[in-house]
Design a protein that fits this description.
heterodimer, A: alpha+beta, 5-stranded mixed beta sheet, 4-stranded mixed beta sheet, 9 helices, about 30% helix, about 30% strand, B: mainly alpha, 3 helices, about 0% strand
C-alpha cells in the first residue's frame, strides 16, 4: 500500500470522525470546532487531488471566514448548550433518520461496491499540424535566378533565398469522409492545428506545383490527447524524387515548471553524422572552449546536446529570458589507430548558426527545427589576384521557429484556475459577485430592528419629558394621571 | 500513469460525508447545527467535484467548487442573519419551536 493511500485513509478517517463528532456533540461550539477539523481534512484531500488553489480557498474561506461567522453567532445568541438530539414532538425521527441515511449511503455506494470503476480519461481529440522544412536540391544546383554575389557587401546583407518546396499534405483514413488537406505550405511555414478523431491515418505529401507525391504514403496512428506536428524535412532525392522523411514531433500542452520555457530541438540539417548542440553563448557572444588533454569541452551552458539528424526531438527547458544562443557542431579529426581502424575524435567546435536576442517565454513550448536552406556566398581566398573571384555558394543553415504552443498553466494552480475563471467563466463570476452583494444587503435588511421599535423610541423621549409636565400640572391643580416612565419590553432585557 | 489514490476512494469518502451531513440535518433540532450539517454536505459535494476534475483532467470542476464556496458563503451570511432575527423574536433557535408559520 502506497504512502498516498495510507495518508488518504488517515485523513479520510479523521474527516469522518470529525463529522460524527460534529453531529453528536452536545455543545454547539464543540460542533463548530469539529467542523473546522473536518474542513481541514477535506482541504488536505484537495491537495491530494492536485487542487492547491481550492485547498487554500477551503482553509481561508470555509475553515476561516465561514466558521468564524458560525462561532460568532453561537456566542452572540448564547446557544452553546444544545440538548436537542431527541425531539419531544417526533420521537420516532431518530430511527427514521438513521434508516434514511443508511439507505442513501447504500444507494449511492452500491455501484462502486459492486465493482463499477470509472472509465479512464481518454484525453481530447488529437491535434495535428504540419511544418514544411523540405528542400528541393534541384533548385539549389541550378537556380533559375542565380543570386548576384557582391563581395564588397557583407554576406549577411544578402537577401535570404528560399529554395524550399511548396507542399500539400493530405491526411486520409480513419473515420474521415474526406481527407484533411493542408494546402500549399511554404517552406518554413507551420499550419494551424486541425482536430481529428483518434484512429489510423495515411499521410501523403504532394508537391503543390506538380501534384506528384514526394514521399511514400506514411501510415500514422493518432491517439487521444496527442498534440502533434508533422515535420516534412530533408532534401528531395533527385533520382526517386521522394523526400527523405516525415517526422512526427510530439508536442505537449503541459507547462514546464519554475517559469521556464521549453524548446523542442529537431535536427533536419542534412548531415546525418554530426550531432549538434545548442549552447548559450552568454554575455561575450563567443563560444568558450577549454581543452584539457587534447579533448575540447564547451564551457558555456549547453541547453541540449547530441541532437541527431532525423531523430526524435531533444526537449530542453531553460529559464525565461533573452539569450544569444548558438547551434554548435563538432569538428572531427580522423586518426589511424594501431590496429588500422579509423578513429574520429572531436578536435574543435564551430558555430553553424547563431540566434541573437532569442526570447524564451514561460508557459510556452517552442519547437525549433534546424534545416539547411538557401545559399550563402563564400569569399574564395584561393582566387588568384587579378582574376575575378567567383563566388562559391554553400548551404545556409536556418532555424525554423515553429510557431510556439501556449501551454496550459499547471493543473489546479491559482494561475490555471484564474485563467479559466476570468475568460470562460467571466459572466458567472460577475453573477456570483452580484449574488454576494444581494446577500450583503439582505443581511442588513433581515437583521434590521422592526419598524415598531423605532416608533417606540420616539415615545421614550416623550415619556421622559412627562414627569416635569406632571409636576407642573400637580402644582397648578389639574387632575392629570401621573405615569411612571418605563422602558419598552425589548429594552428591559438589555 | 494512474493516480496513486483512485477517484473512487474520494467519491466514497464524499458520499459518507454527504450522508453524515444529511443525518445531521434530520437529527439535530438546533438551527445552527442544521446549518453546519448543510455546510458539510456542500463540502462533500465539492470533494466529489474536485475528484472528477482530476479524473477528466479538466479544471472546470475546480471552477464549480469555487462557485459552490461563494454561494455557500452568501447562504451562511443570510442564514445566520435569519437565525439571529428569529432568536430575537422567539428567544429560541430550536426548529421544533418554529413549526407554526406565523410571524
Amino acid at each position: 500500500m502506497s504512502i498516498e493511500v495510507l495518508l488518504f485513509i488517515a485523513f479520510g478517517g479523521l474527516a469522518i470522525a470529525f463529522a460524527v463528532g460534529m453531529i453528536l456533540s452536545k455543545n454547539a461550539v464543540h460542533s463548530a470546532l469539529f467542523l473546522i477539523g473536518n474542513f481541514g481534512c477535506v482541504a488536505f484531500m484537495f491537495l491530494m487531488l492536485n487542487a492547491p488553489f481550492i485547498s487554500m480557498v477551503q482553509i481561508a474561506v470555509y475553515a476561516g471566514a465561514i466558521m468564524v461567522l458560525f462561532l460568532f453567532v453561537i456566542m452572540l445568541l448564547g446557544a452553546e448548550k444544545t440538548t436537542d438530539t431527541t425531539s419531544q414532538r417526533f420521537p420516532w425521527l431518530t430511527g427514521v433518520a438513521t434508516f434514511l441515511t443508511i439507505s442513501l449511503l447504500i444507494a449511492l455506494g452500491l455501484p462502486l461496491l459492486s465493482g463499477f470503476t470509472l472509465p479512464a480519461y481518454q484525453g481530447a481529440d488529437p491535434l495535428v499540424r504540419v511544418t514544411n522544412a523540405a528542400v528541393d536540391p534541384t533548385l539549389l544546383i541550378s537556380p533559375e535566378t542565380p543570386p548576384t554575389a557582391d563581395t564588397s557587401e557583407d554576406a549577411e546583407a544578402l537577401p535570404e533565398i528560399v529554395y524550399g518546396l511548396h507542399l500539400t499534405v493530405q491526411i486520409s483514413g480513419g473515420t474521415l469522409a474526406a481527407p484533411v488537406v493542408f494546402d500549399d505550405i511554404l517552406f518554413g511555414e507551420t499550419t494551424d492545428f486541425a482536430s481529428l478523431p483518434a484512429g489510423d491515418y495515411t499521410v501523403t505529401l504532394l508537391r503543390t506545383d506538380t501534384g506528384s507525391p514526394v514521399a511514400r504514403p506514411l501510415p500514422v496512428t493518432f491517439a487521444n490527447g496527442q498534440v502533434l506536428t508533422l515535420t516534412a524535412f530533408g532534401e528531395l532525392d533527385l533520382n526517386t524524387s521522394t523526400l527523405v522523411d516525415l517526422e512526427i514531433v510530439q508536442n505537449s500542452l503541459e507547462a514546464p515548471q519554475n517559469a521556464e520555457g521549453r524548446l523542442l530541438l529537431f535536427n533536419g540539417y542534412t548531415d546525418p553524422f554530426v550531432p549538434l548542440s545548442l549552447v548559450d553563448l552568454g554575455g561575450n557572444r563567443a563560444l568558450d572552449i577549454r581543452t584539457t588533454d587534447g579533448t575540447p569541452a564547451i564551457i558555456d551552458p549547453v541547453l541540449a546536446e547530441d541532437i541527431r539528424y532525423g531523430e526524435a526531438p531533444i526537449v530542453a527547458t531553460y529559464p525565461k529570458g533573452t539569450y544569444t544562443l548558438a547551434i554548435v557542431q563538432p569538428i572531427f579529426t580522423i586518426s589511424q589507430t594501431e590496429s588500422g581502424d579509423q578513429r574520429r575524435t572531436i578536435s574543435d567546435y564551430e558555430i553553424i548558426h547563431e540566434l541573437n536576442n532569442f526570447t524564451i517565454n514561460a508557459d510556452e513550448e517552442l519547437p525549433l527545427l534546424l534545416v539547411k536552406n538557401g545559399l550563402q556566398p563564400v569569399t574564395d581566398d584561393t582566387a588568384q589576384p587579378g582574376l575575378q573571384a567567383a563566388p562559391i555558394f554553400e548551404f545556409q543553415s536556418v532555424v525554423l521557429r515553429d510557431s510556439a504552443i501556449q501551454t496550459n498553466p499547471t493543473f489546479g494552480s491559482p494561475g490555471g484556475v484564474g485563467l479559466i475563471l476570468f475568460t470562460t467563466y467571466l459572466l458567472p463570476v460577475n453573477l456570483v459577485g452580484l449574488l454576494l452583494l444581494v446577500a450583503l444587503i439582505g443581511v442588513i435588511i433581515v437583521t434590521r430592528p422592526f419598524g415598531e421599535k423605532q416608533q417606540r423610541r420616539g415615545n421614550i423621549r416623550r415619556k421622559v419629558s412627562r414627569p416635569l409636565v406632571s409636576v407642573i400640572n400637580q402644582q397648578t391643580g389639574s387632575d392629570v394621571v401621573v405615569e411612571q416612565p418605563k422602558l419598552p419590553a425589548g429594552e428591559e432585557q438589555k | 500513469m494512474p493516480p496513486a489514490v483512485p477517484t473512487e476512494f474520494f467519491v466514497m469518502l464524499s458520499m459518507i460525508l454527504f450522508a453524515l451531513g444529511a443525518m445531521g440535518v434530520l437529527l439535530r433540532k438546533n438551527a445552527i447545527l442544521v446549518f453546519m450539517s448543510v455546510e458539510l454536505m456542500l463540502n462533500s459535494a465539492n470533494l466529489a467535484l474536485a475528484a472528477f476534475a482530476r479524473q477528466w483532467n479538466e479544471m472546470d470542476g475546480h471552477i464549480f467548487v469555487f462557485f459552490v464556496m461563494t454561494v455557500a458563503a452568501a447562504e451562511v451570511a443570510i442564514g445566520l442573519a435569519l437565525i439571529v432575527a428569529i432568536f430575537r423574536h422567539k428567544q429560541s433557535i430550536n426548529i421544533d419551536d418554529l413549526h407554526q408559520l406565523e410571524g
